[in-house]
Write a structure and sequence with these properties.
The protein is of the alpha/beta class and 552 residues long. The chain contains 15 helices and 18 strands. α11 links the parallel β10 and β11.
């Protein structure tokens, strides 16, 4: 991971976000003046990491900092890293090195690296990039505020923002009307190719009350589309229900804050079990990443406020599975669109299907990762389902939910994948006809069972198979899109009209950033976050093209 091994890129930055005006902010600003300390945060990786960063920014505001998605002019640059695949690791190291260059040029005072990459490779990073002031793994995230304060980079606790005024999250995306709700952390599945449990721990659900409170705050901030995310969204609540049935608390359940899943022996990052015990009761060291309610943003500073009773448990605490969470979100918010991601086929049960079919605010859209179509490969992957289960779930969903959009992800070139097994994957895609497929070539992840498997597939074979699969899926996606021409649909506008009156947004069947967009003609005056009715007039394999219509 040395400097010579990374691909050079410009430092990735988030879109500019408003810098909150903080009463009583630090007087230790750059140059020793009275300006508050400004922290710029760089986020790499998945949407789950975006949520973590938004919570970190919220906590920094609570500690008296001014925050921004811009690193230029920041006193402190925080890089929230990704450690999932080699390319993401390289990008994270490159971002850290670019931040170090800002420091060496006197354009920032301190650099902090956090997140998944640090959890896995902290010792190596400390040895190779000693210019970084602070490395914090996921199980050390509670140390961000006190460590910055000890270095004079944040004000003392007397300058904290009052508890009731602390935001849970600072929204950072260019489309703040769309956001994410991370409902659990970690994963119990142990897929052979995946290192997420090594970084994030085992599965841990966030209590329903905490999630409802977070959704309510997001709604108050203007969010009209909420995407539910986790490692396996269908797994939600199983640990809470099990704890209720046995009368035992889950590890860390009595902690006010959550960030990573349950630590376990063998998890990367030194002794995560010891780190997790710092908050007491086996709770996770996660203060920087997930304050359970707006009033919990200062819990590590001894300022547990409004909402703490909900996060800490109590007689009114609700325990339930995903349908129970969805019903609570529907009942206690007015958010128009809820979208479900990372839904393992084996976890999609009849009650959930019926709820999706019945509730209009739960979009007829499902992200359902299958990873492969060959039972032999699925077995080697240690996936929890087989081909028959995938087909049965698809039939059940399509029978119950008219107009359902299905998205999936698959991996080609998994160790030992034969030509025949790859053909089985293509056959499954042709049979199911997913609307969209995210396809990836297998990437070796050290520490995972697949990394040491025999019969690793050559890179050139992976590339050829990926191209063949992409050709097959492009044709399917185009046919599915062309079938929508002539329909009247609702579009959520993401970007206002240009000088020609053309805006773009997304239908219920298009998730942000991954599914293409709908271009709308004659959309003068529409604003981001607004729902409009359109007629689809044209389609290609990626996008839809539409014109505005009246109230037809």
């Amino acid at each position: 991971m040395g400097e010579g091994k990374v691909i050079r890129r410009s430092l990735p930055v988030l879109p500019t976000v408003p810098s909150p005006v903080v009463a009583g902010a630090a007087t230790v600003g750059r140059g020793g003046g009275g300006a508050p300390v400004r922290v710029g945060l760089v986020t790499l990786g998945c949407d789950k990491n975006t949520v973590d960063s938004e919570r970190i920014l919220g906590r920094l505001v609570g500690a008296g900092a001014e925050v921004s998605g811009e690193v230029e002019g920041a006193d402190v640059v925080v890089v929230n890293t990704c450690g999932f695949i080699d390319l993401a690791k390289e990008e994270s190291v490159d971002a850290i090195l670019e931040a170090v260059r800002l420091k060496e040029a006197g354009r920032t005072r301190a650099v902090v690296a956090m997140g998944c990459l640090v959890q896995r490779y902290k010792a190596e990073l400390e040895a190779e990039i000693p210019e970084v002031d602070l490395f914090l793994g996921l199980t050390e995230a509670d140390q961000l505020i006190p460590r910055l304060r000890a270095r004079g980079l944040l004000p003392d606790p007397d300058s904290l923002v009052p508890t009731m005024e602390r935001p849970l999250r600072i929204l950072t995306t260019a489309t703040p009307h769309t956001s994410y709700l991370k409902i659990s952390e970690g994963c119990d599945h142990g897929c052979a190719f995946c290192a997420i449990p090594l970084m994030r721990g085992k599965h841990r659900s966030t209590p329903i009350e905490v999630l409802v409170r977070e959704a309510q705050e997001l709604e108050a901030r203007g969010v009209v589309e909420l995407n539910l995310i986790s490692q396996d969204t269908t797994w939600y609540g199983r640990d809470l229900v099990r704890a209720a049935a046995t009368g035992l608390a889950t590890r860390g359940e009595d902690s006010a804050e959550y960030f990573v899943g349950k630590p376990f022996a063998g998890m990367a990052g030194g002794d995560p079990l010891a780190a997790a015990a710092r908050l007491g009761g086996g709770g996770l060291a996660g203060a920087a990443g997930f304050a359970g309610a707006a009033g919990l943003a200062g819990a590590a500073d001894g300022a547990v406020g409004v909402g703490a009773d909900l996060a800490l448990g109590g007689p009114e605490r609700r325990r339930g599975l995903l349908p129970d969470l969805l019903r609570a979100l529907l009942d206690e918010t007015g958010i128009p669109w809820f979208r479900l991601f990372y839904m393992y086929p084996s976890g999609i049960q009849p009650e959930l299907v019926e709820l999706i079919a019945r509730e209009e605010r739960i979009l007829p859209y499902l992200d359902m990762p299958i990873q492969h179509g060959s039972d032999a490969v699925l077995k080697r992957m240690r996936r929890p389902e087989r081909r028959a289960t995938i087909l049965e779930r698809v039939r059940r969903l399509r029978d119950a939910v008219p107009g359902l959009t299905l998205r999936t992800t698959v991996i080609v070139g998994f160790p030992g994948e034969t030509d025949e097994e790859f053909e089985e994957l293509l056959d499954l895609l042709e049979e199911v006809r997913f609307d969209r497929v995210g396809a990836f070539a297998y990437s070796v992840e050290e520490g995972t069972p697949a990394a040491t498997m025999a019969n690793q597939v050559p890179d050139e074979v992976k590339r050829e198979r990926l191209e063949r699969l992409s050709d097959v899926q492009r044709a399917i996606s185009l046919e599915n899109h062309e079938a929508r021409v002539g329909r009247i649909e609702t579009v959520l506008i993401d970007h206002a009209a240009d000088a020609e009156g053309d805006a773009y947004g997304r239908t219920a069947g298009q998730a942000i950033d991954v599914d293409g967009v709908t271009h709308v003609q004659g959309a003068e005056g529409v604003r981001p976050g607004e729902f409009i009715r359109v007629r689809i007039v044209e389609a290609d394999e990626d996008d839809l093209f539409a014109e505005m219509v009246g109230d037809e």
